[in-house]
Every structure is written in structure tokens, then in C-alpha cells.
Specification:
homodimer; 703 residues; 5 strands
């Protein structure tokens, strides 16, 4: 059979196909014989698009390369047990090196720039530059023959920023990103991960101290830092004219956001005392939220402030304070509401049969929290923080095993990448970001003021806290708290957000330098500092573990250091706030939002039984032994451990056979909510109340 | 103790602190008494930044909300076993609804626009509009008293696009994203996931057919579609003047990228015949790559084309063809190289001790592939596709258990989110994207031409393939292949990339409509179509399973349908290409790049022993029974299963106790590489060669 007859046989009896083939060959033939190009310069546009695309990719490639370098180096460091530099410090250093290379050697891509003026007869009555320009090129400008296309069209240009020095503009687009990227894409997973992996047990135990440091302490730091800077710069007249008092206060608020990353990574590697860990972590997580709301409040004061009036304005001040409180609580409520909504969705639907969908829902709901908050002028970071806590506390219990692993590993990965990306960016942008403004005097002043501001937070507040606190915060712990106030991603993201004026550009430069300095130098000196202050390392994570039969009693290490957890003081270790909340949580919130026992049918008054029955799932009633027990012990595993133990092994600790020592407080029904939960699968609440004699029991043996 | 004495006691003996406190109170007092505002309108800038931020967040919120809606609805559909609409279809429909609401009811945010003209004395000699404008506002324009700030500054504006109709501009920024987002952020994970979860076993079995459909077929489709459209539009003179032949060819290439998502999700839910699945999947995955390179080649032809010459230019044509081949193979080599680099990194370092770092390295290396390719003017999609295949084939074997779970679940999640995001966006952008250009005639012509173009790919090529192919592609299979050519994310991303000219805007509109039509209507009719064409569903994934003792013989179902897998034809089932590659892979690539046996010490000639020893790890020598066996069976699990079975259970299938039936071809040493690997842990290669009598054995019983 020849090829032709093959085709003939194929087309046999199909005249319509033959017609089509003929039409096709006609089109192909005449199409190619035509003038192939139409009038529009599509291919030039294509090239333009391609160039933009290539530049974008080079930017991304740069940071991906930096991240790979950081990952490989940090692996080598971990492999050789070197601890003098944390991965974020490495990321910054690599960033600085690459930034310098780009700045001084990189090819300069010259954009096609033309200066423009408003068209004749245009009136513009705003005090900020226009958002959009419409450009019409006339013949007199573009005289080239092929450019006739340009003359008939209007092109749109959008606002990008302001330039001081036109010669600097050439590096404008090099290795920089829109600051919105940090706020909308990189910060939310970092904050969410912090909340999702919070050691809630110790967080609740130290609730009072954490809240004091975070709320009062951050405000104090912001005001002290801001005021000191303002005071100092009065010595330098050239500086004083650039910065108003509100400017320095704003800077104080920006720079008071501390970053837990580096120090906590080292803490958890060294197994530092858990209460110290909880204090540092809790404070840093919350103070990001406070700092961001504080900057908002200061901005709002500045907006309401009447410049003609002069001096301090009481009304505007109280409005700003009111706004601060309103924004914070609204964000908190929004975040918790959406967290609770996710818990309800995962509890009352069978979406857990499809873990991928469940995980997506979880991720999307959490991100929505951030977006709703930001879109309604609340603070997304606060919302996502409390949403993360609710997700960890309630939703996590309802998730399928698969989704637990997925969500944890997903956020861990995102957190790691986002964090190291930001630190790389801080390094690179020191050289490439066009809006830097170096001022040695201001930078020196800031370093001093920041340290003093931190001291004004930690030492007086610890002093006051120690009056009402049973396990006192020792002097050495206070020093560690002081040093742990490193600045990081949040301060940088706040500073880079608005770099329009010279004051703000100076703030950005100073913030970058403070972040770099603290990450590299403070981060590197944590281990010697801990030794120097005699902070116990290698402490068991859970003091309760210490009395497990067979394991050596390690509680002793703890007392030497700082906080003395005597058996009799366990009740007072928990703040009254934590105790009230714990009782409410165990009795109403957990039964409503998770599959845990006791059910609402047991905890609600009998009159509410029909409602309670409706809100109790059959899983909840038939719940077996610890199959879906509380998540806290899993979430409590510190970062270094979770790196190794998440995945299949992550569930080992909730296996029914797992035994935990348990302290029951004398006639205290509402015991620590975290413990209680772990306790449930093994001992029923009835048994618990009979047994509460203040002695410790092995649950396995006591039943 | 009064409060005052408390403070006194605190400051006792610390005069330096007292001085500081005094300084601080001075600063606070005088700071607040000063004029708080400096000259720069920072608070107005802040507000401007805040507004941009709010708008960005509303946009993101919209899509997140749509995704949540889609997730919840699709869960309900799955729960009730409704199959008439796939999740992507749902995403599109929700997108359309919301897009319409935004378009017709949403508030219109009026940007501050002013028309501008070039400053006096400016010369501009390019044929494309300038990239950047520098605006200087003079007094005559902004007369407001507070706006003096504007007069002393230069503002930068960047190019955004072209407008035809100025009244349309008001929805310019509503719910739209930079097209770069699709290419740089959303497509790479989708393509990577496709490659990473490819059923490589069946892919290699059908390598010849897949390559034919992908390479030749896509080119045929592109040219036929393009030519037919050009032919048809000659009937409409008003259309003919807007579109050159190269334009329609470009469109043909854009629209020839098919999307496997919807159809494959349904296939795997219904357990459609694996060979059909492999054909559809393999073809769609590869043809995205071909289509994107083809559009590049057509653009390059257009650039080289001399408009003064007219007609077909042979030199430019062959240059374009050469470029096509060069770009494709370079991208392929780049992707494979980076995949292999990752494999080597994970094999020869102990980074697997830190799974988080390992996962990061894996993700970053894979993304780097895309970025390097794009930055060097190659095609990232092709590179990431082959990188994904290498990662699945080699690197996966070296990963720790934890990283396996992490990487799989991470990409699965990203893929799901990215895909549904794109489909939502297609829906919303139908109404909100300002660059749409509806032309009913062109749209109708395109629908017809696209269908004919697809037919011109499948039917003739299947006809030709069936000459050399033993398990023939039956007529019904051909029909399914024809219908499975739905258009999706890739076509849309290509079309939205450049919407400068009217022709391109028409292409975008038409592409969007074709995508929407095919996802909703074809996607909805797959199940009835399969029944109608008598395609067997509920087929065992692995035909070999069918002869496992104890399970019913299901091979019969398969023969009725289409491909007859008779025992004697197994050898010819594999293409010669697959056989050569399989041999090379098993002997050299896998021993070099993974921890699998045989080691290079066994496969390389004795003279290379020192090198071979260097390249063999101790893990490889001490490898036990299947602990880190091949990944393919895990990767082979189809989507529907993996939703349920990934996580801790995902490793069940590689347990040593797991038995698989195995066919050994008559005196064929290089058996199918996928099978062989599964075989390894149980039978050593020596045993295999002794036993190869062409009979089937249960490995467990044969040793």
C-alpha cells in the first residue's frame, strides 16, 4: 500500500473531510503568501513583555539562589554543630554580599524615560501626586517613520514613587519588590505559623507576664525609644528639622516589634527552660501585633492632628487610644471568629473524608482572616495571630490525621521560606533599594535608644511583675529577655511600607541596620550569653515528664536557674486569667468546637439538653481512646524536634498506650486545660473527681 | 510601701538611670509641645499606601472567598457523589457570577488621572511607548495652598498599557492581576505537580504514542486551527483586516495547549483504563510545553520576518524551526540537569537528617529550574516539567520519609489552589478584565476551528500510529482523546500575557470563552460520554494485579474496550525508545543518582571500579528490603486515592510484605524499569536472570 492509497482509504466516503482538507491547504497556501504582519507592533510588545518577564525572573532567581545557598550552608552548620550563626543571620549576610555585587557590578538596564508635563488646560487640586497618567505622544516628539502607531494611541502610566536624585533611578527596578508583597504574602504565614506552633500550655501558664510585657511593655518601648531619639536629635539641628516628634514616635513603634525567630531556634535547639521560652515566644508573637496597631494609632493621631493648633491635642490623643483598643479587639474577635468558624465547619461536616479539601479549607479560611481584617481596616496580623491560636486549639482536633500532617508541614515550610526570604531581602535591599537614606548620627542614636527602650520595658516591668508572681523572673532571665528583643521581619516590613519622605527613608535604613546588627551579632552571641547568665540548658521540655518512673528526676536543674516550680505552688503558677479561661474553655468551648469529651450534654445545664444534643456529634459520643486526642503535645514539640518527628511519627505521642504523669490540684475541677485533655482518653471525668486527692497518679495505673 | 517609694527603691544607687528618666520626661514633654508635623505629607502618603493595600486585599479576598466557596461546594458534590460538574467548572461558574456582580454593581473607585504630554524639547525615537515617565507638576496646574510640596518634586510613573476607550478605564484595577503572576507563580507548581505525579510506568509504555500526539499532533493542531481561522475570517472583511496570518497561527498555537485537569480527575475517580489515562495525561502534560515553545517560535518568525519582502520567508521559517528545537531541547536538558543535581545533592549529603531543610532544597531547586530557564530565554514550563520527572524518578528515592510526605502534600496543595485560582480568575476576568474584545463571528469561527484542529491531530495520527502499535488505539478511545482536548490554564495564561493590540484582546476573549465552554460543558459530559463510547470504567489500576491469586480475573473487561493486552504482546507494548532508555536508566542512572541497587560497582565495567566505589554510598551497599524502594507505586496512586491515602498510609505499598505479580520477558534483561525497581527488594538481579523463562512468577514464591 503506498502512502497515497493509505490516505485515500482513510478519506474514502468522507467527502466533508476532503472539502475541509482542501480548504485548509488553500488557507495555508494563501495565508503564507499574504503580507503576514498587520499594522500593530505586536512583536515589539511581545518583546517588551518578554523583557519585563526576564527581569522579574532574574529577581526571583536571585532570591531563590540565595535561599538555596542559605539552606545548604545551614545544613553544613547543623551537620557540624556550629551555632555561632543562625540561618537568618546567614541569609542576611549572603544577601548583603549579593546586594553589593549587584550594586557595583551588575549591568545597568536603562529604561526608556521621558519627562512629561501635564497637558494644557489640566487642573489638579490634590496634595498628593496623581495615580494615573495618560500619555499622548504627538508627531513632534516621535519622528521615526515606524512609530506612527504611537501617535494615535493613549498610554496609561501608574504612580510608582518619587525621585530625589535622578541618577539613582537606574537601579530602581533591580532586585526589589513591591512592599505589599511582604505584608500580603510573606508575613501572614510567619505569624500564623508562630500562633499555630505556640506552646499553649506554657503560654497560658505565663499569660499575665506575657500580656504585661506585650501590651504595656511594647507601648513603653515605643514611647521611650521615640522620645529618646527626639531628645537626642535636638543636638543635631540638621536632623531636628527633618523629624517631627510624631515621626520619631512612629519610628519607636516600628522598631519595637521584636522577632523571635533566631533566639527561639537556638532556645529550642538547646532545650532552654520552657517558661523562659514561653515568655520570649509569647512576648515576641504578641508584640508584633501591638507594634503594628501602635503605628496605626500614631498615624491616626497624626491625621486627626490639627497642625495649626500646635502642641499636644488631648482629643486626638484619646481618639487614637480608642482606635488602638478598638482595632486590636476587633481584629482579635475577627480572628477568633473565623478560627471558630473553621472549627465548626470541620466538626459538623464530613469534609475530613477528603483531606486535600479539608487542608485547602483550613489554609483558605486562615488566609481569609488576614484579608478580611486588612480589607476592613483592622489589623490582619492580629487577626491571623488569634485565628492561628484558635485553629491550633480547636480546629486541629477535628482534622483528619492526614490534614494535621499536611497543615503543619505546609506552614512550617512556608514559614521557613518566607522568613529566610525576608532576611535575604533585607541584606540585598541594603544595597539595591533606591530609597535608602544613611545618616550616621541618626543610626547611632537609634541603636542607643532602642537598647534603652528595651531596657525600659523589661527591667521595670519584671520588677513589678515579681510582686504578684510566684515563680519570680530572676535577674538573669531578665537579661535574656532584654537580649532576646531582636528586631526582624515585622519591623522591616513596617519600615519599607512607606518610603516617600526623607524621614521615612532614614527610618528604613536605620531599621534595616538594626535588624542586620541584631540578627548577626545578638543571634551569634546567644549561646555564650546563656552560659554567662547561667541559664539552664538541656532542660526537659515538660517538667511533668521528670517524675515518670524510670526517667531521672531532672526538676532540680530548673530550680537552680530561676523559676522555682515547687509542687505546692503549681496552683499559683497559673494566672487567674488562665484559670478562668481554662474552666470556660474546657466546659463550653472545647465540647462545642471539637470532638473532645465531655460533651455539651454533660456540661450544659439540663434545660439546654435539646440544644446540647444537636451540637454533639456522634463521633464525640462514640469517641474511643485518644484516637483524636488533643493536639497540644504535638504542637508543643519544639521546632528542632518537629523537623525530625513530624510526618508518620508525629502521632506517636497520642497513641492510647502513651502514659503521662498527671497532677490533680486539691479540689480543683478545672485543672489545666491542656493536661486535662491529654488525660481524658484514659480517665473519665467521674474518675477524676473521685481521685482528686492532690496526689499524682499514673493515669494508667489509677483507673 | 507606696508606689513612689517602690520606684525610689528601684532607682536607688542608679544615678545614670535617673538621668535617663529625666531626659526622657524632658523629651516627652517638649516633644509633645512642639509642632508635631513636619513639612512632608507623610500621613497623606500613608493613606495612599493604605488605600492601595486595601484594594489589593479586597482583590485577594475575593478570590480566596471564591476558592472557599468552591471547596465547600465540591465537598458537597463529592459527598453526594454528583459528577456532572468538576471543581474547576464550579470555580469558573462562581467566578463568572462574582465577576458579573462586580462589573455591574461594584463601587467605582475613580483614580486621580491627568493627561500629560512630553516636556518641551523631548525627543523620543522608539516605536514602543516609553517605560517610565517623570512628572513635574508646575504651579499653574496645582494651585492649592497645601500642594506646594508637589511642585518641588519629580514623580515616577511606569508603563501599564494602552487604552482605547477612556471610559472603560475605571474598572482597570478591579479584581485583576498582573499576567506575570500566572506565569511566574501559578503555572510552575501546576506543571511540576503534573510531572511529579505522572504515572511513569504507563507513560513509558505509551511513550511513542504520547510523543507523536504531543510533538506532531500539537503542531498539526496549531497550524490547522490557525489556518482554518484565517481562511474563515476572509469571509468577514472587517475581521480580515485586523488579523494577519501570523496572528491566527499564534492563536492556533496558544489554543492548542490542552488541560488535563478536569478530565483526569474524572478518569481517576472512575478508574478508567490506565493506558487511556496515560495517553491523555502524557499528551496534555507535554503539549502544554510544545504549545508554549510553538508560540515562541511563531513570535520569533514574526520578529525575523521582513514586512517589506512579503510572502513566505524560507530563511525565517527555518530559523524559527531551529529555534523551536533548540529551545525545547535546551529547556529539557536544563530541567533534567537541575533534577539530577538535586538527586546528587540529596544522595551524597546527609541533608535528609533535617527534613525541613531537605524539603526546602527540593522545592527551591525545582523552582530555580523554572527561573533559570525563563531568565535565559528558554521555556520554564518545559524545564520544570522534565525537572519534575527527574525529581520523581530519582530524587524522590533519596528523600527521607518525612520529606516524601511533605513534598507530595505541598505540591498537591499548591496545585489545587493554583488551578482553582486560575479558573476562578478566568470567570471573574470575563467581566472585569478591561482588555476584552468580543467578536461573535471570530468566536464562532474559533470554536469550529478548534474542534477541527483537534480532530486533525487525533484521528489521522491514531490511524498512523495503529500501523506500528500492537495494542491499537480503538475508535472509541480516539473519540475520548478528541474530547479530552479541553483548554485550560495554560491557554489562558498564554493569551493574557500580551493584550496590547485588538487582535490579542480578541484572542484573550475567545480563549477565555473556549476554556469556560470546554470546562463546563465537556467536563460535565465526560461521564455520559464514557458510557456512550463503551469505555471500561472501574478497571484495576494495574492489569498485573488481575492475576494475583485470590482476586478475580479482570483482564477481560479491558480487552472488550479497546487495547488488547494479550500476554504474548507484552514485549511489543513497550516502545523501543522506552526499552533502550529503561536499560540505560537501570544500569547507570538509578545507581548513580539514587540509593537503589544494583550499584555502579556492579553495572560499570571493572576498569571503572574506583570511580564506581566513590559514587556508591554506604546506604546503597547496606540497603535492606525495600525500605527505600522505588517511589513509582506511590506516585502511581491516582489523585482520588491520594487524597485519602497520602500521609502515614502512603508508604503501605512499599512494605516488604507487599507482593506483586511480575512478568519477565523472554531473555529480556532490561525489563520495564518501573517494574524492575519494585521487584528489586525481593529478587536480586542474579535470580532474575536465572528465572527469566517468560513465565509469570509471584516474586515471593519464586525465590
Amino acid at each position: 500500500m503506498t502512502k497515497f492509497s493509505l490516505f485515500k482509504c482513510y478519506f474514502k466516503g468522507k467527502p466533508s473531510i476532503l472539502v475541509l482538507v482542501l480548504f485548509l491547504s488553500y488557507s495555508l497556501h494563501f495565508g503564507f503568501c499574504q503580507d503576514l504582519m498587520s499594522g500593530t507592533p505586536d512583536s515589539e510588545y511581545d518583546e517588551k513583555a518578554l523583557n519585563t518577564h526576564r527581569l522579574d525572573n532574574l529577581n526571583l532567581l536571585l532570591y531563590t539562589f540565595l535561599l538555596i545557598l542559605t539552606v545548604v550552608t545551614i545544613w553544613m552548620f547543623k551537620h557540624r554543630r556550629l551555632r555561632f550563626l543562625h540561618e537568618t543571620g546567614l541569609a542576611v549576610i549572603y544577601g548583603l554580599v549579593v546586594g553589593a555585587i549587584i550594586r557595583y557590578t551588575g549591568p545597568i538596564t536603562e529604561p526608556r524615560v521621558i519627562p512629561v508635563v501635564p497637558a494644557l488646560g489640566t487642573h489638579y487640586n490634590h496634595s498628593v501626586p496623581p495615580d494615573v497618567l495618560w500619555l499622548q505622544l504627538s508627531k513632534r516628539v516621535s519622528s521615526k517613520a515606524s512609530a506612527t502607531y504611537l501617535n494615535n494611541h493613549t498610554f496609561v502610566y501608574t504612580f510608582r514613587g518619587e525621585i530625589d536624585n535622578t541618577s539613582l533611578n537606574e537601579i530602581d527596578q533591580k532586585a526589589t519588590f513591591d512592599p505589599e508583597v511582604f505584608f500580603n504574602l510573606l508575613l501572614p504565614p510567619i505569624i500564623f505559623h508562630a500562633a499555630y506552633s505556640l506552646k499553649r500550655k506554657y503560654f497560658f501558664k505565663n499569660l499575665g507576664a506575657i500580656f504585661t510585657f506585650a501590651f504595656i511593655g511594647t507601648t513603653v518601648t515605643a514611647f521611650v525609644t521615640g522620645s529618646l531619639i527626639w531628645g537626642f536629635i535636638q543636638i543635631f539641628p540638621y536632623l531636628a528639622k527633618d523629624f517631627s516628634f510624631l515621626d520619631t514616635l512612629y519610628f519607636g513603634a516600628v522598631i519595637s516589634a521584636t522577632d523571635p525567630v533566631t533566639i527561639l531556634a537556638i532556645f529550642s535547639e538547646l532545650h532552654v527552660d520552657v517558661n523562659l521560652y514561653a515568655l520570649v515566644f509569647g512576648e515576641s508573637v504578641l508584640n508584633d501585633a501591638i507594634a503594628i496597631v501602635l503605628t496605626r494609632a500614631i498615624q491616626s493621631y497624626a491625621e486627626k492632628y490639627n497642625p495649626n493648633h500646635g502642641g499636644f491635642e488631648m482629643v486626638a490623643f484619646f481618639q487614637a487610644v480608642g482606635e488602638f483598643l478598638l482595632i486590636f479587639t476587633s481584629s482579635l474577635i475577627l480572628g477568633s471568629t473565623l478560627g471558630i468558624a473553621t472549627a465548626l465547619l470541620t466538626k459538623f461536616t464530613r469534609i475530613r473524608d477528603f483531606p486535600l479539601l479539608e487542608t485547602c479549607l483550613f489554609v483558605l479560611m486562615s488566609y481569609t482572616t488576614f484579608l478580611i481584617a486588612e480589607a476592613t481596616d483592622l489589623t490582619g496580623i492580629v487577626a491571623v495571630l488569634f485565628c492561628g491560636m484558635c485553629q491550633a486549639h480547636y480546629t486541629y482536633n477535628n482534622l483528619s490525621d492526614d490534614s494535621r500532617v499536611r497543615t503543619k508541614s505546609f506552614f512550617e515550610l512556608l514559614n521557613f521560606l518566607a522568613e529566610n526570604f525576608i532576611f535575604s531581602y533585607i541584606g540585598v535591599s541594603m544595597f539595591t533599594f533606591p530609597k535608602h537614606h544613611f545618616d550616621v548620627a541618626f543610626i547611632c542614636i537609634s541603636f542607643i535608644a532602642v537598647a534603652l527602650g528595651r531596657a525600659a520595658n523589661i527591667y521595670p516591668l519584671s520588677f513589678l511583675l515579681n510582686f504578684g508572681r510566684k515563680p519570680k523572673i530572676s535577674r538573669n532571665f531578665q537579661h535574656v529577655l532584654f537580649f532576646s528583643g531582636m528586631r526582624g521581619a515585622m519591623a522591616f516590613a513596617l519600615a519599607i511600607r512607606n518610603t516617600m519622605s526623607k524621614a521615612r527613608q532614614t527610618f528604613l535604613t536605620t531599621t534595616s541596620l538594626i535588624v542586620i546588627g541584631s540578627v548577626i551579632f545578638v543571634g551569634g552571641s546567644v549561646t555564650p550569653l546563656l552560659t554567662c547568665f547561667g541559664i539552664p540548658v538541656g532542660v526537659e521540655e515538660d517538667p511533668d515528664h521528670a517524675v515518670l518512673p524510670g526517667t531521672p528526676h531532672r526538676g532540680g536543674d530548673l530550680t537552680e536557674g530561676a523559676i522555682e516550680p515547687s509542687r505546692s505552688s503549681i496552683q499559683s503558677e497559673k494566672s487567674w486569667l488562665a484559670r478562668i479561661w481554662g474552666g470556660f474553655d474546657t466546659k463550653y468551648m472545647k465540647p462545642l468546637l471539637t470532638h473532645s469529651k465531655p460533651t455539651l450534654m454533660e456540661t450544659l445545664p439540663p434545660c439546654c439538653l435539646p440544644v446540647a444534643r444537636m451540637l454533639t456529634t456522634s463521633e464525640q459520643l462514640n469517641q474511643g481512646c485518644g484516637a483524636h486526642g488533643d493536639s497540644d503535645i504535638e504542637l508543643c514539640i519544639d521546632d528542632a524536634d518537629s523537623v525530625r518527628s513530624s510526618g508518620p511519627r508525629a502521632f506517636a505521642s497520642t497513641q492510647p498506650g502513651f502514659q503521662r504523669v498527671y497532677f490533680v490540684n486539691d479540689r480543683k475541677m478545672a485543672v489545666d486545660d491542656e493536661d486535662r485533655h491529654l488525660f481524658y482518653p484514659i480517665v473519665s471525668p467521674e474518675t477524676l473527681s473521685c481521685d482528686s486527692l492532690g496526689n499524682k497518679h499514673l493515669p494508667g495505673s489509677s483507673v
